[in-house]
Design brief:
single chain; alpha+beta; five-stranded mixed beta sheet; four-stranded mixed beta sheet; 26% strand; PGBD-like_sf; transferase; cell shape; cell wall biogenesis/degradation; Murein L,D-transpeptidase
């Protein structure tokens, strides 16, 4: 059936492009998602496709990036780059036991068990300027499902303290607000905070290394 008078002819791929826009970091995100693996097939060519869009959306969903629209924007690029650049060897975790590793430089965190990666790197948000998360090797010394912060008047789900008043807990705000930082704590996405809590125990080792940019 031919197009009638006044009908709009849509070029192939146009409808898809409108539904899943190409971002300014398309090729870089494709390359880092391919390096990370686990998000589906991507083609590193800087061109948006249905497969690329699905992979980027899966990545955005996993790491709490909003909106989830498959667009390779600055936040998606930043998170993908940080994760792909994280070296688990940099933690220098012991060959025995469980070690929670916090990479301040890349703002990532992961868990090692018996010298091998147990939980892959995920994103975190640590202390901002003036509240820098201290580097060193520590032990978890307090754990509560929900802890109240008196200084900041906020609940901290899945609290695991490891030095002074600093510990792991679920973020209470959008993790990817670039200008923000914590008051020293290691903020985690909800699923990661629960996973860390399930693995942790009093006496678990925490290693914090590197330095957050800008602090």
């Amino acid at each position: 059936m031919g197009a009638g008078l006044g009908a709009v002819v849509v070029a192939p791929g146009t409808a898809f492009a409108a539904a899943c826009p190409k971002g300014e970091y398309q090729k870089a995100v494709e390359a880092n998602l391919k390096k990370l693996g686990g998000f589906g097939k991507v083609t590193v060519d800087g061109k948006q496709s249905a497969a690329d869009c699905a992979a980027i959306k899966k990545f955005q969903t996993r790491y709490g990036i909003k909106p989830v629209q498959g667009r390779a924007g600055p936040t998606t690029n930043d998170v993908a780059k940080r994760l792909a650049s994280t070296s688990t060897a940099a933690c220098k975790a012991p060959k025995k036991g469980t070690t929670f590793c916090v990479d301040l430089t890349h703002q990532t965190t992961f868990v090692m068990r018996n010298g091998k990666v147990h939980l892959k790197p995920t994103v975190t948000r640590t202390g901002m300027k003036g509240y820098r998360t201290p580097t060193g090797t520590y032990k978890i010394n307090k754990r509560t499902i929900k802890e109240w912060s008196n200084p900041y008047e906020v609940w901290m789900p899945y609290w695991q303290r490891f030095v002074r008043g600093i510990g792991f807990h679920q973020t209470t705000t959008y993790l990817h607000d670039g200008w923000r930082g914590s008051h020293g704590c290691v903020n985690l996405l909800p699923a990661d905070a629960k996973a860390y809590y399930d693995l942790g125990k009093i006496g678990s080792t925490v290693k914090v290394f590197g330095r957050r940019p800008g602090t």
